[in-house]
Queue: 2 jobs
Job 1
Amino acid sequence: MLRIVLYPHPTLSFEAQPIVRVDVKLKKLIDEMFELMYEFRGVGLAATQVDLPLRMFVINESGQKGCGEEQVFLNPVLSQPKGTEEAEEGCLSLPGVYAPVRRPKQVHIQAYDLKGREIKQTVDGFLSRVIQHEHDHLNGVMFIDRIPEANRLEIEEKIEEVEVQYEEERREGLVGDSAAIEKGRREWLKRYCGG
Ligand code: NI
């Protein structure tokens, strides 16, 4: 069973690795990611947020099961950023933390779906922002890393609350120690990234 990990879980700062094989289990993991995303009212979820060191994320702009379009992106590559736009963001790994983030307005995404079909899309607006936010996760980058130091002060207290929550989860044994986390990661990498 997957669970969403909280900041500063080490996998959130891990650089996820390209997926070289898709199997039934990976499809099940993706189903579970969608379920968690809906349960916690998100519109996107990256694999590193459920402690999987793999380059993939899921999105449903509507945030509601049975509505909108479910999109799975494997090994996404972003290019051709254009323009800038600022809008408020939040993150399921940082519950209660919201802040405006400046990002390119438009980007091009190249990726693969679960059937191995290539996805090539130029996106802007809300979808562009969600894709960039989730793609950042695969590089170990959180949205708070993109906030200028001066503005970070306002959310510092909320971030600390999440850190306290994370420590509690560790004490309760919901999160393993660093050796266990690393071992788990190695197993996933061996299975899906060819070692
Ligand atoms: Ni996030």
Job 2
Amino acid sequence: MNKERIEKAVAVAKEAHEGQFRKTGEPYIVHPLAVKKILEEWGMDEDTIIAGILHDTVEDTGLTLDDIRRDFGESVAFLVDGVTKLSTARNGMRDIDTYLPATKDNFLRLMIALGADIRVLIIKLADRLHNLRTLSALPPDKQKKIAKESLEVFAPLADRLNMGLLRVEMADLSFKYVDPKRYAELKELIEKYNKSAEKSLQKIEEEVSKALKKEKIKFKISGRVKSVYSLHKKLAKHNQNINEIYDLTALRVIVDDITDCYLVLGIIHSLYTPMNGRIKDYIAMPKQNGYQSLHTTVITKDKRVVEFQIRTKEMHEYAERGLAASFYYNEQKLTENYKKGKIEHLPTNLLWISELQMTAARLREGKKVDLRKLKINLFADKIFVYTPKGDIIDLPKGALPLDFAYKLHSEIGDHVVGVKINGKMSNLNKKLEQGDIVEILTSKNQTPKQSWLGKIFTSHARSKLLHYLNRENREHHSPEPNPKNPHKSHKV
Ligand code: MN
């Protein structure tokens, strides 16, 4: 690491941002310096750290890409350009058109633009993390908007890159703004639970430690606290039944090698009764994002349900830092192999990144690429659609226009009279597709209809609709048809 080069970047950024202030009232330079620190903690390489320091200069100050290229070289300039393009892209996806062929799928385009160098995405994630940490300085409507987008786009992205620490922090920071009441409720619940479990957990830790020492296994054991947002999501899956959440308490055992992982699993099962169907071997079968670990849920002598996560140091490092860690270790090899046209330098589960990088490189060289061949299942179960203003809304595959409308706001959902998809009038039975631009037409005279139940896919929209219909039933005994609907010709 060349300290002088980094200090020079700090000096350049300081001068460029001179006189600018953040919403918190602090000098603007506080932000790029915080991004620098985050990237350093993630173990990123020198060029990435320098680009992180300069990431807002081209967009917000008089500094040009040529200045950066002259002072810090092509690689840094390329990264800064990528981050700048990314924010432009997010404000309506304009710039990307200049070097990407037309495709309807804005999200794919965005990913390809990024994929040119995945470090662009890592800088963007660091940038977003600091903005979330300082979100309290923004007005409430902006807070909600940024938090929602982080929860729906950036935290899942961190998860797909197996950056566990980042995912948890981003999700919890965002969730606090998206649903403050629920956040406070669940946080209290977790704290109470942990407190009540503290003593018996300590005993379990001692029992396990004793048994492992007896077998001469080198290990580290510690408790892991469940994040608020992941508990929220799990509860939603289990009909809010907290008794079905088996990993509220978890202990993590970190060992030296894979053989020891399985030994530890055996020892734990000899101490406590494993729960049926709760043993997961993510070592033999890693998760899609490359996560590896053994999981087992056991019932202790005093009837406590505890999850154990057993993994090697490397697996643990990778689970917490993910792509950043892997990038750090593979950087040299990555550059070499990339020049040779090889793409097998990343864990199999992250091969899509290589694929993305190769594709982007080919596009930049002006070569033809069939984007349909690119299989990026970054968000396999999701689609991303856009409001006419370019805001990204994520929905499950199979979602319909009413799901989109209710996701925006129940005020919008309740008054839908029609929908335009990609600028054309469409109907409420039309499944939304990745990249669609969806415009909802409303009328304040419109009210929800019983028949809408057949035109809804998500449980969120269904519950909003049922909420309205039930209330209506109680008040009028039968839902009334809307006599004067000026938009009837739209065939709602
Ligand atoms: Mn920034």
